[in-house]
Amino acid sequence: MxxxxxxxxxxxxxxxxxxxxxxxxxxxxxxxxxxxxxxxxRRGAPVFxxxxxxxxxxxxxxxxxxxxxxxIFDLSLAGEMEISRELKQGGIILINTSREIGxxxxxxxxxxxxxxxxxxxxxxxxxxxxxxxxLGAYVRLTNLVNLGTMIEAIKAMVPSKVKxxxxxxxxxYQQTKIYEVAGISLS
Amino acid sequence: MTGNHAVAHAVKLCRxxxxxxxxxxxxxxxxxxxxxxxxxxxxxxxxMRTESEHSAMASCIAASxxxxxxxxxxxxxxxxxxxxxLHFAAGCRAPVVMANVNRLLAAxxxxxxxxxxxxxxxxxGWIQFYCENGQEALDTVIQSYKIAEQVYLPAMIAxxxxxxxxxxxxVDIPEQEQVDRYLPPMDLPHKFDIDKPGFVVPVVSSExxxxxxxxxxxxxxxxxxxxxxxxQEFKKEFGRGYGIIEQVMVEDAEVVIVTAGSITSTTxxxxxxxxxxxxxxxxxxxxxxxxxxxxxxxxxxxxxxKIAVIDRNISLGSGGIFCQELRAALIHSSDHxxxxxxxxxxxxxxxxxxxxxxxxxxxMDRVDPFDQPIWVMDG
Lengths: 187, 379
Description:
The complex is a heterodimer.
Chain A: E1 2-9, H1 14-27, E2 31-38, E3 46-54, E4 69-72, H2 80-86, E5 92-96, E6 111-115, H3 117-123, H4 131-142, H5 147-157, H6 162-175, E7 177-180, E8 184-185
Parallel strand pairs in A: 1-4, 4-5, 5-6
Antiparallel strand pairs in A: 1-3, 2-3, 6-7, 7-8
Helix pairs in contact in A: 1-4, 1-5, 3-4, 3-6, 4-6, 5-6
Chain B: H1 3-13, E1 18-21, H2 28-40, E2 46-49, H3 53-64, E3 70-75, H4 77-91, E4 97-102, H5 116-119, E5 127-130, H6 134-151, E6 155-160, H7 176-182, H8 206-238, E7 245-248, E8 255-259, H9 262-276, E9 281-286, E10 288-290, H10 294-300, E11 306-311, H11 321-329, E12 338-343, H12 353-365, E13 374-375
Parallel strand pairs in B: 1-2, 1-3, 3-4, 4-6, 5-6, 8-9, 8-11, 11-12, 12-13
Antiparallel strand pairs in B: 5-10, 7-9
């Protein structure tokens, strides 16, 4: 079973992103379980969304305390130490950031993907909603679902601007920088 | 889909012509989905947007007595406000079906899972089911109409906030033709004829009141058998069945954990883990709560030495409510087992496999009876 945590703010699309990713896994024959925890029902408030994926129906009906993977929409919400403490050993991190890998001193024990998703979304005409760009980056980083399946899931689930969302996912897939542990570049 | 949307699908599949409701978190998604379908024409019924839950239930009762299927959904403060009308629904023998998303009761305020809201309504004369996931909630709504419309009593389906209502999981949606085959149109013998107006709820003599109550009790008792039959028919048609209770590895168990709702699901996993370590732990799931399946529970737990009931609720000054009921049900059993009341998951706190494991191992070591509820403060 894989446990994934999405960290974002209300309005950034982290919840929808977790649902789209769940759908993509479902389309590939897996059993997803997706749920969200809100700090407050308003834009800008911290939002956590969770996704479990397994080969069989998931019996756990409780929160995810130590995820295998964390997807960070907004770095201002958590310090590196906090992320490092909550992630399982051998975990994977995807971060939306313009920073270089060298600046993430506390996360060198994890495989990481960096993507500056904002400009990609804006270029595709999506404004500040960069969740589909994050999903494209996720596919590139983890290789756990096919890009084609992800596009199918995006088509089925985004409420509008389907073409722009697909473009954002594809562009982010291309631009994602991947680093094995200790910041060694793979791309 | 979420548990809330699963419930909405069930209501649509049952072709319920009258839905009266008032939104309340975390049930609102049921209401919104049905409203969306009403607006798009997918739902053939009417949504009544009432000014309160009290009025929603009053509307359901009135509509039900004209012989149509009705539905409402509520939660927490909503079901508390509805309390008076719940007695009316049962007393009028109106087979109203309701989903209650279990949310804690204020104060203090919160939106989190806690079964006290529906358990506080246990004496209102409603049938009550507790569901562990969205699929079961969907299936139980369909089954509830079939039961309620045979015994002329209202039925409540309880699903916990967040862990069921908001967990998005694969759910199998039955075909409309299957549901039509399974659930015949409602036929209420005592329905109102609007061309010949009548009067409902007249003042009665003490003797007549007693007679009505006795008749309702006889009907309520029959639910234990009817719910079992309805579930078997359901399994034949849809391939899924649940039983009024379910036993998991109880036969050789030294300790049986008793749960209701979503904690059951997590316990299934915990029990597997405990078995692997060589601990003989079993699980008894309580699905039907009203009527309480006394005989089924007695048979399931015959000869057991130790039982731990996990309650996501507390009756202050007493203990976990499922535990109270279970202790009462087993009072005449020979070899009366030790029954421990564990309070876990109150106010939506997390009940992990580790918590269940800890309870199980603790009970393995216990030898003396303990009357007080035992609070689990981790998670």
